Amino acid sequence: MKRLVILGGGESGVGTALLGKAKGFEVFVSDAGSIKQAYKDVLINNGIAWEERQHTAAKVLQADLVMKSPGIPEWAPLVKQLREQQVPIVSEIEFAARFTQATLVGITGSNGKTTTASLTHHILKQELQVGLAGNIGHSFAKQLLLNDKAVYVLEISSFQLDDIEQFKPHIAVLTNITPDHLDRYENQFEKYIASKFRIAENQTSSDYLIYDADDKVITNWLSKHPVKSTLLPFSLTQPVSQGAYLENNNIIITIDNNKIHMPTNNLALEGKHNVKNAMAASTVAHLLRIRKQTIRESLENFHGVEHRLENVLKINRVQYINDSKATNVNATYYALESMEAPTVWIVGGEDKGNNYEELFPFVNEKVKAIICLGVDNEKLLKSFSSMVDVVVETQFMSEAVKIAYKLAAPGDNVLLSPACASFDLFENYEDRGRQFKEAVRNL
User: Fold this and answer.
1) Confidence band for 277, pLDDT divided at 50, 70 and 90
2) Are residues 162 and 129 in the same domain?
3) 109 assigned to a ligand binding site
4) Does residue 166 register a pLDDT over 90?
5) Which residue numbers delimit the Mur ligase C-terminal domain (predicted)?
6) Which of 93, 146, 248, 384 is most deeply buried (CB count within 10 A of its CB)?
């Protein structure tokens, strides 16, 4: 019996443990932190061995195969030891994909992947048996085990792609690539780009890569590192012969000389970046032979994901907007770009080596006050103090929202779009977004 050791007892770890046990592995789950009670109960009820607050080297190093949580970096001492002993280490996506015949749609990118994955799933589920997994919702492994679907839409992070071997989506989507998580890639942007492109590395000419042709990082990389897949670019600025482009507010999708037109004036999601997300999702749907009418209606009634430019409440004609999912500068760029009114901007958190320069034009034009919400705001203060008259610092969400309430005038927006990770003051970006919404409701 092969021994499967799982590092990390969260959603993906416990899902993998259940699937591994069902497939005949001897399973052991090890977490350096504490495992949530709900997950412990699942492990206990299924007779799966586990430990928390430690990794017992003797138990881990006996593995025939290791699945590591995406949060554990390559330089962790135990990972190094496993590498030295040549024990294969895979991600949940790699492990689970071995046990399904489903058509896989893999979506990655620095921004837009959650919205694109959710929108793609929303369109496909109208006509197909489809699951949504990966970096979103219930674990892929657990879904396969409980109810294997015909199609899976997988939102995949670079960390999950780092640990694939044979994983191959039939349709891969690359939304964009901007500097993010560079702390995990030795501050080398090239390594991060290479990691994202692993989504296509096992693809063949019968598979598809849908990508943003307006993104110079992607097009430059493709020109130097060609892939085997059939390329389907999407663009807001130039016509493409295969793929999707925008002309007179219509998305035009062409695949094998089959053209469809989708008007964008009724899209439920606003902003240029959402036109791109709609192009990517529609192209996937078109490849999977979803009817045009279904695609059109789905784009018109899809209202986005929580914590991504989510309108919370209007109080005294001030709109409060939760964009807590903006954990990098590029995501905040889209948020500020879409602001149509003077904006009080709540920003800050754990900086991942951010360069705020690309935000300067929007800050000059649209931002009337900045509230820095983080443990260390020095870089923000240095970047923006000269541009905005009012810059305030705080370490409490409730206080940030109260200050915003005082600073905003009727007709303004209050935008939480942090451009940073949340781990300095919050459990995760969801916790940060929920605290924001609660504070707004308590005004």
Assistant:
1) very high
2) yes
3) yes
4) yes
5) 307-420
6) 93
* Section 293-313 average pLDDT: 90
Hey, what are 2's tokens?
A: 């092969």
Q: What's the mean pLDDT in 291-303?
A: 92
| Rounded Cα gap, residues 84 and 61, in angstroms | 10
**Domain count within the chain:** 3
Is 422 annotated in a binding site? The answer is no
Q: What residue numbers bound the domain in which 125 lies?
A: 94-301
For residue 422, what is the domain's CATH number? 3.90.190.20
Whichever domain contains 170, its CATH number is: 3.40.1190.10
Same domain? 226 vs 98: yes
Query: Is 113 labelled a binding residue?
Result: yes
289 burial type by CB count under 10 A (0-12 exposed, 13-18 middle, 19+ buried) = exposed
Q: Any idea what the Cα angle at residue 55 is, between residues 52 and 61, rounded to 5°? A: 140
Closest CA to 214 of 280, 262, 267: 280
Among 256, 157, 172, 250, residue whose Cα is nearest residue 208: 172
Q: What are phi and psi of 23, to 5 degrees?
A: -95, 10
pLDDT per residue as tens digits for the range 12-62: 999 999 999 999 999 999 999 999 999 999 999 999 999 999 999 999 999
Q: Is 112 annotated as a binding residue?
A: yes
Q: Is 268 exposed, middle or buried (0-12, 13-18, 19+ CB in 10 A)?
A: middle
Residue 81 shares a structural domain with residue 69: yes
Mean local confidence (pLDDT), 159-176: 95
User: Over the stretch 61-110, which tens digit does the pLDDT of each residue have?
Assistant: 999 999 999 888 888 899 999 999 999 999 999 999 999 999 999 999 98
